[in-house]
Specification:
two-stranded parallel ribbon; ligase; two-stranded antiparallel sheet; zinc; 219 residues; ATP binding
């Protein structure tokens, strides 16, 4: 294809061992996204909307390459929320690596299942499901094992899960309140935590406590 010819001419190297074309990418209610119709979305468009370009990669991982992928801004935002949840989980794991945990023998078994999914006609949706099972503590491992395993898996997923979740879009006062609420929750001071949540809501932001961590959005 043109992409292979261009890349190999530019680098002088073989680009990949396997080249797969995914099914059509549909945009909203249209049949497919095409350059000729002028309805394409660029990476720059994502950045201008405050979206992480890797959120699109995450979105692609949620669909099998033989299946059509529906692109909507809502789907992309949901993908970014999921990606940021993974990154927040990695941050919390990294803060607990010094805690001693009993070593398990689950890593080898987990990797075998993960690669079994990947090698099953590149079934990335199934592989991603296994990642979430690890994050949701459905598979027993200590924090160090989980952290190192997720880093290894990211060499395949390539979604940079160790990157810190950006909070620059939050006002400084909201950031401080979020941290204060996290401390209150850690100390099981639920009354204070609820009061802070209400204060944050009055300032125009909503917090959601999930099994994967805290999510926030503007009202």
């Amino acid at each position: 294809t043109n992409e292979i010819a261009q890349s190999e001419a530019a680098t002088g190297k073989k680009i990949v061992n396997y080249w797969l074309h995914g099914a059509f990418l549909t945009f909203g209610t249209k049949k497919k996204m095409t350059k000729s119709q002028g309805d394409i979305v660029t990476i720059q468009n994502l950045i201008e909307r405050g979206l992480d370009p890797l959120a699109y990669r995450y979105l692609c991982l949620t669909a099998h390459y033989r299946s059509k992928l529906k692109f909507t801004w809502e789907n992309l935002q949901a993908a970014q929320n999921a990606l940021y949840t993974l990154r927040e989980h990695m941050r919390r794991l990294s803060e607990n690596l010094e805690r001693k945990g009993k070593k398990t023998r689950k890593v080898k078994e987990y990797l075998m299942n993960f690669f079994k999914a990947v090698n099953d006609d590149l079934n990335m949706p199934k592989a991603l499901t296994l990642v979430w099972k690890l994050v949701r503590n459905e598979i027993e491992m200590n924090s160090k094992e989980k952290y190192e395993l997720l880093l290894a898996l990211d060499k395949i997923l390539a979604i940079d899960i160790a990157r810190e979740v950006p909070t620059e879009h939050l006002p400084l006062k909201i950031k401080e309140l979020v941290k204060k609420r996290e401390r209150a929750r850690k100390n099981q001071d639920w009354i204070t935590a609820d009061e802070i949540r209400n204060e944050i809501k009055k300032r125009g932001y909503l917090l959601e406590d999930t099994s994967e961590g805290i999510r926030w959005r503007k009202k």
